[in-house]
Design goal:
Length: about 500
């Protein structure tokens, strides 16, 4: 069986979802996908030996738990690995990597399973599943947390908030810590404390040769540099150590909703306000279709400063228009972190294009509004994600994450529950992105799309790319870890 092309177009996303990987009958040889499209045949004895060497479970098609384990958040992808290694320990991860190398298998790595591009699962290869590894240890005196790679953000936030601490950790609580951190890691308190990767102080990593190594400012500092924004290119991280910060249990936040009337003026007023916002102020601006079919601007707000400072700043935000819903008020950080969870459910199909902008310039605003004015929105959202603050104050080459100058990311997201609507929603995103993309500079690699050209990854790392290529050549010269926003070895 030849390896399929992975999601080369909108049609192939749906095609891959409808053509299952065909495993051999139980007890016989198992055909599998190798790297670069090579066909591999796995012997039952080899699979049995692999299974005996794992503390966790090894699943094959047809086994109980297999279908649940292969499912990821983005329902646009329905891939079927030949093997799923549900790793319970770093030793399991090492064993899985060595098996993959010995048999030249295609490898996908699943942490929290929020893979937008579908690359945390593969057709016919080996899926290294870290989701059973869910340990969290918090040291409140040192303000440090050690977090295993299967942990989701909600669990992490709850553990740290028990001690009045937190660190930057996304905006949807069912996201995994691993992928978020390795790609950079934005969040509601990122403008105050920096990216998740800026708060990473160390990591335990299984490299492509199966070795377990530490990465920190003192141990393998080159690898530590690459892990902070370079994605999953250099190994499988089994544990992360984070710097934590004192964060009040009660913050001011919630949803502030304006009618999408005179949208250009509303977005311009928001741009004027947000350009002077404090580091404690965070607000995403999303244009969505409300329950009554009318478009609205829904602002997702979090102010982590004092109540007085929050009151003053939010009073100015309310004045950019006439809100039809004002849900701002005192809330716990954990509640704010899960406020958007239901908007992004597991199993729905998603397609995204995104890019960084320094400011919400009149040209950016015009491109967004013009697309919205051009016709029906389908089921989708235009989201302007708030960045800047402390993120800006880190030098571009201090970590692998380059684009420190950006104050916003403009995202266009199409989504669908019925696969028959996939093509329409994907086309809505693509048509709008044509006007926005020329105004952007780089993009967030965690939002890579399945059909992005390979050189888009190179372009977003800019001056850091040559160093990333050299690092890849050192730690993964055969590109074993290729199912990601891939940096290929030279």
């Amino acid at each position: 069986m030849k390896r399929r092309e992975f999601c080369a177009s909108a049609c192939s996303v749906l095609t891959a979802a409808s053509v299952p990987f065909q495993a051999a009958h139980a007890g016989g040889d198992v055909p599998a996908s190798g790297v670069a499209g090579k066909q591999v045949v796995l012997k039952p004895t080899d699979i049995d030996d692999f299974r005996r060497g794992l503390s966790g479970a090894l699943l094959t098609p047809g086994q109980e738990g297999y279908d649940a384990a292969r499912r990821i958040w983005n329902g646009a992808f329905d891939k079927k690995p030949a093997l799923i290694a549900r790793c319970a320990t770093p030793a399991d991860v090492s064993h899985a990597i060595q098996f993959a190398r010995a048999h030249e298998l295609l490898v996908a790595v699943r942490g929290g399973g929020h893979s937008l591009s579908g690359q945390s699962v593969c057709n016919g290869g080996l899926m290294i599943d870290l989701s059973p590894m869910k340990g969290v240890r918090v040291d409140p005196q040192a303000r440090r947390a050690s977090v295993e790679s299967g942990v989701l953000l909600g669990q992490f936030d709850r553990a740290t908030q028990e001690h009045g601490l937190a660190t930057t950790a996304g905006t949807v609580s069912h996201t995994g810590v691993a992928g978020l951190t390795l790609g950079g890691g934005f969040g509601r308190i990122g403008r105050r404390f920096g990216l998740a990767c800026d708060n990473l102080t160390g990591a335990d990593v299984v490299t492509a040769d199966g070795a377990l190594v530490k990465a920190s400012a003192h141990d393998n500092p080159d690898l530590f540099w690459g892990l902070r924004g370079g994605g999953g290119n250099f190994g499988v991280v089994t544990s992360f150590e984070y710097q934590l910060h004192v964060v009040p249990p009660a913050m001011i936040g919630g949803m502030l909703v304006f009618p999408w009337v005179n949208g250009r003026e509303l977005l311009s007023a928001f741009a004027d306000f947000i350009a002077g916002a404090s580091d404690e102020m965070y607000s995403d601006f999303a244009i969505v279709t409300g329950p009554n079919g009318q478009r609205v601007a829904a602002l997702n707000v979090c102010h982590s400063g004092t109540p007085a400072a929050a009151g003053n700043e939010l009073a100015k935000l309310r004045k950019i228009g006439k809100p039809v819903q004002d849900g701002l008020g005192a809330s716990t950080y954990v509640q704010l972190q899960s406020a958007l969870d239901d908007n992004y459910p597991h199993g729905r199909g998603y397609y995204i294009k995104s890019g960084f902008v320094q400011t919400l310039s009149p040209k950016v605003i015009d491109a967004v509004v013009s697309h919205l004015d051009a016709g029906p929105m389908a089921t989708g959202v235009v989201n302007i994600v708030h960045q800047g603050g402390a993120i800006n104050r880190v030098k571009p080459d201090a970590t692998a994450f380059w684009h420190r100058e950006a104050n916003h990311s403009v995202m266009m997201i199409g989504f669908w529950d019925d696969p028959a609507n996939a093509a329409t929603n994907m086309q809505w995103v693509k048509s709008g992105w044509k006007g926005v993309e020329p105004l952007t500079n780089g993009f967030y690699v965690n939002e890579v799309a399945h059909d992005d050209p390979a050189n888009r990854v190179e372009a977003t790392y800019v001056g850091n790319y040559p160093r990333l290529v050299a690092l890849k050549k050192r730690y993964d010269p055969t590109n074993l870890f290729r199912m990601n926003a891939n940096v290929a070895p030279a």
